[in-house]
UniProtKB/TrEMBL annotation, chain A:
Organism: Esox lucius
The protein's name in its UniProt record: Transcription initiation factor TFIID subunit 5
Predominant location: nucleus
GO cellular component assignments: transcription factor TFIID complex
Low complexity biased stretches: 39-62
GO biological process, one term: transcription initiation at RNA polymerase II promoter
TrEMBL record, chain B:
Gene Ontology process terms (BP): RNA polymerase II preinitiation complex assembly
The keyword Transcription is annotated on this UniProt entry: yes
Membrane-crossing segments per the record: none
Residues in TATA box binding protein associated factor (TAF) histone-like fold domain copies: 12-76
Keywords: Nucleus, Transcription, Transcription regulation
InterPro entries reported for this sequence: Histone-fold (IPR009072), TAF6 (IPR037796), TAF6_C (IPR011442), TAF6_C_sf (IPR046344), TAF_TATA-bd_Histone-like_dom (IPR004823)
Record-linked Pfam families: TAF, TAF6_C
Residue spans of biased composition, Low complexity class: 602-620
Coiled coil ranges: none
Protein name: Transcription initiation factor TFIID subunit 6
Protein's UniProt keywords contain Transferase: no
Superkingdom classification of source: Eukaryota
């Protein structure tokens, strides 16, 4: 059984070891500490634990008021686990790394387990005895922030930790009273002033869930069912999906290993409530001595109290819907360098190259002014841009520079789009795909198109007259004259020229596919848990990156190449470098599958969309989660950054596109119109138009210029994040184009702003 | 939301009997009721869990349909061995049986006859994936090319013409209703209305002057109309096919209908039979186009068609030229449009019937017109024949007798009477064969039907014999084409009906069937629509094609065109029965195609679309067409 946590630790160690042993790996990145998100998530619930589906997390519901203590405990837990699995080497290394003294790890195991040991903790007064700890937890002192559950040694292999996770539910109340409690609260909330009602109504859903789970946990199956039937109808419709999962769960045994349940338990549901409303609620509950509900609020809810006007219903609805409530306000406070990198590496050689190119063409005068304008533009340092060397980026090769020049030339011919100048759309239909097309990507210069298929194959087509050719075999290569000018031509084998090539290697449907910016490589991620790197020179597989043990839903190359990101069913997104077989960063924190991954144009950040209905933005430098964006009501299946790096668009199964301001971490627009999952989003090259493609067989074009202009961001909204979304989807919709029967699964703007769309004909 | 559904979701569990059955199947004999209950709850929960995970794979597979492979993958991430071997994409091969108070689902393993497999022709190799590019939009405007959906879908056109109030926004309501009230306004006004509605329907299209056709469209219109009335038959066939299949003709429809109506007006006066035939074929092609809805142009088309049915003279030499075929053909067109467009508000059928009857009853009506009226009426179906034609057989017989046996007045009258006679015999015989009890007594017929009685009697006898023969013949001419991925998806009905005694063949599912008319009869001169065979393949949604192979024996031009299933035009001629009467629980309902001929539909063009027993998957659409099937009597055909 694979546990994420172990993987985390493991990966950490292995890469460390690699660094130590190899010694040659002197990448700067490598040296930076790999930091996962575990300790970063507010009140210290260990999110990373709650991940692997099928199995459960390794214990450690550390609830500690202090960060360092918690870290210590985590370490201890990890140590124990490693010991138990006879990974002594790792234990030593970890101990060395953490600077722990030897004595703490050797207290003998407690009754149940075998090899594990009680969590003798430096920070807690009462360490040691697991049983006492267990009982302490299960007694469940209400509103006890000081309860510290040290990691409990696993009892055998059968997911023992769940009990600990669940034990908080063992606080017993009279099952018959639950509906009464709930009803009482409902009546109270219905009777409060209108302005508070919407805010307080947010409490219903988490309360409902936790009360239901408590009933189930305590084996009150009948009562639980009744409770569910009675009150599930009151919940907001966007929770229907979760309610369906809950409704199936009627036995204590079911709670073991159910991810949704664990998510609820391990992560506090976050609510934002104004101070006034909160006081009202508090007073009410205290007056009534309604301890049951108060306990749940204390234990399982995180109430983010803010000063100021209570929010309206629509404001709340816009932001809610995620699996664990809204993002805390302080989660989005970190500064994000969303500006674009200036490209000094290019500028200098560009001039040379450009001049050369011009000289060849023999018309240097014409190009001069344009080049200058380009130069001056990139010289201006964007105050929001990250430092040039914040992330080490690969050096540009000559071919890259040539490509950049081509890019700029093309860009000069680009059509300026706008609401009265819509792009033409060229649709690439995959015929005879028999519903097997699962992913599509198009190179930046729009010369190649690749498809991933359910039959595990990856196919690459050339959409230009230039055919795809393989490099000659090694034997043949040795025969050619390496000094000749056209050596690059000569190494290609003319006999293999064809319009398409098939890449075999995966053993499951290919869900994600991405071309490298230099068109030499192709990445594909698959159900088989691997990400594969293919060479487009030889059309062979170069590397299989193993790490995700579960289906990998998406992968993407960095805009500068070299790095890539992948995310999958194991709820972790990983950052890789093509020349390392282990990930460089692991972004853990999502509560459900990571469904899509995108690089920020400046390559310093990675955005991930997830089935927990949140989007997270991660800092590549330190692995921190810098933004949590909530508001979608369904799993997110597409993300796109605007070319200036300032905005982001996301599309989900709910058929809505949301627009985000990355700098402020705010939702700034909602585009309604699609009726089915949005699988493709893309900004035009200048960012004026957003194209969205959906399962409902349409491509829609949206006026993002107007959308971004319409938003008025004053300091207050920026500070509180309470934004009034303009209801103007219909005004922003510039065009809607229906295909005959082809779901749109990929969109791409060529360098001249022609829109390419792709999908498989589905008769 | 689905509040009513939710409590159900909470409680749905497998029946405990299933647990018992499963336990028995692995050798656990006595399972207590409590254990069963506990087990079934657990199993139900796990199944739900797996289904939820499987949905995830479906989403990432960018599909709307859950497949067995999704379930396999879901099992895999739960570390459960996937179900190998159940890769069948067609249906879940469980069968249901009950007996002795027990109900069972079991997997049927049929004995396979190897020779069957060996003798089955190899399926076509599936086509490889390929890439095709087209313009979805050019600077914001979607071009009307076959790759794109028709600019205004048929439903929309229909909604606009039948319920203008709904399609038009409040401000334009009045205008819309006025135009409807006026009924037969000029095409121009109608066009205006249409374009307005269309603009409302599409969201913010570039404003354009909608009355003008683009240069390409003008060129197309010119080419098509010239080809349709030109001398080159091959070109005409192409043009007609284009009219019948092109999805982008919506905007040109008013032009076409004016062209036809004007053309008929001029050519009737000039007695230009050939051109009239060509124009009628255009009407036919327009009606065949699945993307067009002609309702708004009927006021132009119907007069033209009716003219071609009942006009006194359609050709220069009425004694030699075969204008009868044109009348027949136009009558069929008329019947077809009645069936497609007649509603309670426009009453097309009753108005047409009245028109025909009135001129038929008129003593002074010429034989040509008389023939047209009768043809027009009889095409409207057996009921019309029964109520309007058969009662008048005696009178008509007397009139024919007067011409044929009386003094020779004119050759033309004689020919006319002759044709009327054979027409009456042809249509009435099949109806009478259906309705009249058996003893076919010559004398009795004479008493009942007068002069035509004896002839009618022999025709009826022939019709009865042919009906019996027909059944066998059709059976023999069945052509089975197995296609690569052709399968029939049938969702499990679950609720068991009776136990079907027929076993569905699992290996060989004939996916296509052809109905052939036994006699590809085409009228001689005008070569109206050639005999069509529909080769129809239904498949599991992967690909479903339907081809109309037009074999015209007279003009020797064979055209193959792909047509979406014919609109529900006529009464169902082909009835579908599933073996075991309704739903065969747990097994694929055996499908039998039973061709039920209508009581007296001799030599008529009948088009019908029969929706198969809806097996919940909409991809299964069966359209069957039978044209010119001179088959009275029931013919049965089973694809198995």
């Amino acid at each position: 059984f694979h546990r994420l946590f172990i993987l985390l630790v493991h990966a950490h160690f292995i890469s460390k070891m690699a660094a130590v042993q190899d010694g040659q790996v002197d990448l700067e990145v490598e040296k930076k500490e790999i930091k996962t998100e575990t300790s970063n998530d507010g009140s210290g619930n260990n999110n990373a634990n709650s991940s692997s589906p099928g199995s459960t997390s390794l214990g450690a519901t550390s609830k500690s008021p202090t960060g360092p203590a918690e870290d210590q405990q985590t370490l201890l837990a990890v140590l124990q686990f490693l010991k138990r699995n006879k990974l002594n080497e790792s234990v030593d290394i970890l101990r060395r790394e953490a600077g722990l003294s030897v004595e703490i790890d050797d207290s003998p195991g407690s009754a149940s387990g075998g090899a594990g040991s009680g969590g003798a903790s430096n920070s807690t007064v009462d360490g040691g005895d697991t049983n006492s700890l267990l009982s302490r937890v299960s007694i469940a002192i209400p509103a006890a922030p000081a309860v510290t559950a040290a990691p409990v040694p696993p009892k055998g292999l059968d997911q023992p930790d769940v009990n600990v996770v669940l034990s908080a539910y063992s606080q017993q109340g009279d099952p018959d009273l639950y509906p009464l409690y709930y009803n009482g609260l409902k009546k109270f909330i219905e009777s409060v002033l209108d302005c508070h009602r919407a805010e307080l109504s947010q409490v219903f859903y988490p309360l409902f869930v936790h009360m239901y789970l408590e009933l189930v946990y305590n084996n009150h199956e009948v009562e639980a069912k009744q409770f569910f039937e009675k009150f599930s109808g009151d919940q907001e419709c966007y929770y229907a999906e979760d309610l369906r999962i809950l409704s199936g769960m009627t036995k204590k045994e079911h709670m073991k290993g159910n991810e949704t349940m664990l998510d609820f338990r391990t992560s506090k549901f976050v609510l934002r409530i104004s101070r006034d409303s909160y006081q009202l609620l508090k007073r009410h509950l205290q007056e009534r001595q309604n301890n049951q509900i108060w306990n749940i609020i204390q234990e399982h809810l995180y109430i983010d109290i803010f000063d100021g006007m209570p929010r309206s219903k629509s404001q709340i609805d816009a932001m809610s819907g995620s699996l664990a409530g809204e993002a805390k306000r302080d989660a989005n406070k970190t500064k994000v360098f969303y500006g674009l990198l200036k490209e000094p590496e290019i500028e200098v050689p560009l001039d040379d190259e450009d001049e050369e190119a011009e000289n060849e063409e023999g018309k240097p005068k014409k190009k001069k002014p344009k080049k200058d304008s380009m130069g001056s533009k990139s010289k201006k340092q964007d105050p929001n841009a990250p430092q040039q060397t914040r992330i080490p980026l690969p050096e540009l090769k000559d071919s890259d520079k040539l490509d950049k020049i081509m890019n700029m030339k093309e860009a000069a011919k680009k059509i300026r789009l706008g609401s009265d100048n819509l792009p033409s759309i060229c649709f690439y239909t995959f015929l005879n795909a028999y519903q097997g097309l699962t992913a599509v990507d198009i190179t930046d210069d729009s010369s190649l198109i690749a498809g991933g298929f359910a039959d595990s194959t990856v196919r690459v087509w050339s959409v230009t007259p230039k055919k795809l050719r393989r490099v000659k075999s090694a034997a043949d290569l040795s025969n050619i004259d390496k000094e000749s000018d056209d050596v690059l031509e000569r190494i290609m084998d003319e006999k293999t020229a064809s319009e398409s090539k098939i890449l075999y290697g995966h053993s499951g449907p290919v869900y994600g596919i991405s071309f490298s910016p230099d068109r030499n490589y192709l990445l594909s991620s698959s159900e088989d848990g691997t990400v594969r790197l293919w060479s487009l020179q030889t059309f062979t597989c170069l590397v299989g990156y193993k790490g995700h043990n579960y289906p990998v839903w998406d992968t993407q190359f960095s805009p500068y190449g070299y790095y890539f990101v992948s995310g999958g069913h194991d709820r972790v997104a990983r950052l890789w470098a093509t020349d390392h077989y282990q990930p460089l960063r692991m972004f853990a924190g999502h509560l459900a599958d990571v469904t899509c991954t995108r690089f920020h144009p400046n390559s310093n950040y990675v955005a991930t969309g997830s089935a927990d209905r949140t989007i997270r933005l991660w800092d590549v430098l330190n692995g921190n989660c810098v933004r949590i964006l909530t508001g979608h009501k369904g799993p997110i299946h597409s993300l796109a950054f605007s070319p200036n790096g300032k905005f982001m668009a996301s599309g989900a199964t709910d058929g809505r596109v949301l627009l985000w301001d990355i700098g402020h971490g705010l939702m700034i627009g909602e585009l309604k119109g699609h009726t089915d999952t949005i699988y493709a989003l893309r900004f035009s090259r200048d960012g004026e138009i957003l194209a969205s493609g959906s399962m409902d067989n349409t491509v829609k074009l949206w006026d993002t210029l107007k959308a971004f202009d319409d938003v008025e961001l004053d300091d207050f909204t920026a500070a509180t994040g309470h934004i009034h979304l303009p209801e103007n989807s219909q005004e922003l919709l510039l065009g809607s184009y229906t295909t005959k029967s082809t779901p749109v699964i990929h969109l791409h703007f060529t360098r001249r702003n022609l829109l390419l769309a792709a999908g498989a004909y589905n008769p | 939301m689905a509040e009513e559904r939710r409590p159900k979701q909470c409680t749905v569990v497998l029946p405990t009997e299933s647990m018992k059955a499963m336990a028995e199947s692995i050798g656990v004999g006595q399972l207590q009721e409590e254990s069963c209950a506990a087990l079934s709850e657990e199993v139900s929960y796990r199944i739900k869990e797996i289904a939820q995970d499987a949905l995830k794979f479906m989403h990432h597979g960018k599909r709307r349909k859950l497949m067995t492979s999704d379930i396999d993958h879901a099992l895999k991430i739960k570390n459960v061995e996937p179900l190998y071997g159940f890769q069948s994409q067609e249906f879940i091969p469980f069968r249901f049986a009950s007996g002795g108070g027990r109900e069972l689902h079991f997997y049927e393993e049929k004995e396979v006859d190897l020779s069957d497999i060996i003798n089955t022709p190899l399926p076509r190799v599936p086509l490889d994936v390929s890439l095709k590019a087209h313009w979805l939009s050019i600077e914001g405007v979607q071009p009307a090319i076959p790759e794109n959906p028709p600019p205004a879908p048929k439903e929309q056109q229909k909604a606009e013409s039948t319920e203008p109030l709904k399609a038009v926004k409040p401000g334009q309501e009045e205008e819309g209703s006025i135009q409807k009230g006026q009924g037969a306004t000029s095409a121009e006004a109608k066009g205006k209305c249409k374009y307005k509605c269309k603009k409302e329907g599409l969201i913010r299209m570039k404003p354009r002057s909608t009355h003008e056709l683009s240069v390409e469209q003008q060129l197309y219109y010119k080419e098509i109309t010239e080809a349709c009335v030109g001398s080159c038959e091959a070109k005409r066939a192409e043009a007609l096919q284009s009219i019948a299949t092109d999805p982008g003709l919506y905007q040109m429809l008013p032009r076409f209908s004016t062209f036809i109506s004007e053309g008929v007006r001029v050519n009737v006066v000039q007695n230009n039979l050939a051109l009239l035939i060509y124009l009628m074929r255009m009407v036919k092609a327009l009606m065949d186009n699945p993307t067009l809805y002609l309702e708004k142009y009927l006021h132009e088309l119907i007069p033209a068609v009716v003219t071609c049915i009942v006009s006194k003279q359609l050709c220069l030499r009425p004694d030699v030229d075969n204008h009868w075929a044109l009348r027949d053909f136009a009558a069929r067109l008329m019947a077809q449009s009645c069936k497609t467009f007649s509603t309670t508000t426009n009453n097309i059928q009753s108005r047409i019937t009245k028109t025909f009857t009135k001129s038929w009853l008129d003593e002074k009506t010429q034989w040509t017109t008389r023939y047209g009226c009768i043809a027009g009426l009889s095409e409207l179906g057996p009921d019309v024949i029964k109520t309007l034609i058969i009662p008048r057989l005696t009178i008509e017989g007397a009139r024919i007798k007067a011409v044929i046996e009386g003094p020779v007045v004119s050759n033309i009258d004689k020919i006319g009477a002759d044709h009327v006679q054979s027409l009456l015999l042809k249509h009435c015989a099949s109806v009478i064969a259906k309705t009249r009890p058996l003893p076919d007594n010559m004398e009795q017929y004479r008493v009942d039907y007068g002069y035509l009685g004896p002839m009618l009697c022999s025709h009826v006898v022939k019709a009865r014999a042919q009906a019996a023969l027909q059944a066998q013949q059709v059976n023999r001419t069945t052509l089975t084409i197995t296609q690569p991925r052709s399968t029939l998806t049938v969702s499990q009905s679950g609720i068991g009906g009776s136990v079907g005694s027929r076993t569905p063949s699992i290996i060989k599912v004939p996916s296509s069937l052809t109905l052939m008319s036994t006699r590809p009869g085409t009228p001689t001169q005008p070569s109206p629509p050639a005999t069509k065979y529909i080769v129809m393949a239904t498949s599991a949604g992967a690909s479903s094609t339907q081809q109309v192979i037009t074999l015209s024996s007279s003009s020797a031009s064979s055209v193959t065109s792909t047509v979406a299933s014919a609109a529900s035009t006529l009464q169902p001629l082909v009835k579908l029965e599933s073996g075991g009467g309704g739903s065969l629980g747990g097994s694929r309902p055996l499908q039998k195609y039973i061709v039920v001929s209508l009581p007296s539909s001799a030599s008529s063009s009948l088009e019908s679309k029969s929706g198969m027993l809806p097996p919940s998957s909409s991809s299964l659409e069966a359209g069957m067409k039978m044209e010119r099937s001179d088959s009275p009597g029931a013919s049965t055909q089973s694809p198995h």
